[in-house]
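REQUEST FORM: STRUCTURE PREDICTION
Request ID: SP-0412
Submitted by: Lab K.M.
Chain count: 1
Length (residues): 117
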Amino acid sequence: MKRLFFIAASVLLVSYAVSVGAAPQPTPAMINNGKNLTPHPLLHQVNLEMKQQWQKIMLDQKDGKLTPDQAKAVRQTLIGIRKQIATDFKNSPTHELTADQAAQINQQLQTNAQSIP
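STATUS: Completed
RESULT:
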């Protein structure tokens, strides 16, 4: 039991340290026709936050802090946010997030994070 607690605490501390530290910027990747495949910095930030929330949901459900129904509801919110991002990309001629769109998505992610214990 102590070992499980130590592992869970370590995972939470590492995830907190990663979220507090500066997020590493992706390295540019080029394809043959010269298009830049590097994700937009705003999208990269949003993706990191979504990944961290998804992992926290899994840990909290495993630890019993979230019921399966609560975890499902929070996951559905993340899925809805992901669908909104896809819609924003389809509607954008440059296939990038605007600062306003990123701010709106970040606000939704913050609200969702508050529902995770």
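NOTES: The helical segments are 2-20, 41-63, 68-91, 99-114.
Reviewed by: T.R.
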